[in-house]
Automatic annotation (TrEMBL):
Residues 31-46 have a biased composition (Polar residues). It comes from the Eukaryota. SMART domains: Cyt-b5. Residues 68-82 have a biased composition (Basic and acidic residues). GO terms for molecular function: heme binding. Pfam families: Cyt-b5. Belongs to the cytochrome b5 family. MAPR subfamily. The lineage of its organism: Eukaryota, Fungi, Dikarya, Basidiomycota, Agaricomycotina. InterPro entries: Cyt_B5-like_heme/steroid-bd (IPR001199), Cyt_B5-like_heme/steroid_sf (IPR036400), MAPR/NEUFC/NENF-like (IPR050577). This is Cytochrome b5. Residues 31-82 are annotated as: Disordered. GO terms for cellular component: endoplasmic reticulum; membrane. Residues 73-169 form the Cytochrome b5 heme-binding domain. It comes from Rickenella mellea.
């Protein structure tokens, strides 16, 4: 009888000790997901009027883009726009679409991180997330499904930020890639 009482007492004692631990565990296991959806916006819960900022380190989209141009550029002509000629715009081509990235000379200018993509179509390297010169080529038909998706995401990223100044006409590209580029233009 006495031992039963002691057991109940020690159970209650240890149970009380466990309570704070359970509280902490619950707090950390039921916190909100890292990417809240529109309906799970924490502002709705708190009633805060503050705008939820998008969780990205990428620059914001450009809201005043010009209508896209359809000028034709050979790879040779496109090379003039690699940032090496002072006063000339800087162009980057993705899947044959040429974007004017002059506003980001600090990234695409000579000697800068992404100059490898300037004055050319370096689609394969963009898809592979590679900055190697040998990968910055226009033929992206070698990419696997995941890298193809990465490349498409870059095309969409650039489309929202930079003016389209034309398209690459490259007779040396395989017909398959030229067809894919044309499809991209129409989408
Ligand atoms: C340690 C690795 C890297 C870091 C820390 C990094 C960092 C960044 C940051 C912060 C931006 C945003 C710039 C902005 O939007 O203002 C950016 C943009 C970009 N990154 Fe990287 N990056 C890395 C590797 C790469 C690699 C391997 C590639 C190759 C494809 C790449 C290609 C790009 C491109 C094309 C942009 C878009 C620049 C623009 O026009 O705004 N990055 N990077």
């Amino acid at each position: 009888m006495l031992s039963l009482k002691t057991d109940v007492a020690s159970l209650a004692f240890y149970g009380l000790l466990l309570l704070p631990l359970l509280y902490v565990l619950r707090k950390y296991t039921t916190s909100s997901p890292s990417q809240p959806s529109a309906t799970e916006n924490s502002n709705e819960l708190t009633g805060s009027k503050e705008e939820e900022k998008p969780k990205t380190i990428m620059s914001a989209a450009n809201t005043s883009l010009q209508p896209p141009k359809d000028d034709e550029f050979t790879p040779e002509r496109l090379k003039d726009y690699d940032g090496s000629q002072p006063g000339k715009p800087i162009y980057v081509a993705i899947k044959g679409t040429i974007f004017d990235v002059t506003a980001k000379v600090e990234m695409y200018g000579p000697g800068k991180s992404y100059n490898i993509f300037a004055g050319k179509d370096g689609s394969r390297g963009l898809g592979m997330s590679s900055l190697k010169p040998e990968d910055a080529v226009p033929d992206y038909s070698t990419l696997d499904e995941n890298d193809m998706k990465v490349l498409d995401d870059w095309h969409s990223f650039f489309s929202k930020r930079y003016n389209i100044v034309g398209r690459v006409v490259d007779p040396n590209l395989s017909e398959a890639v030229r067809n894919m580029n044309n499809l991209q233009l129409k989408s």
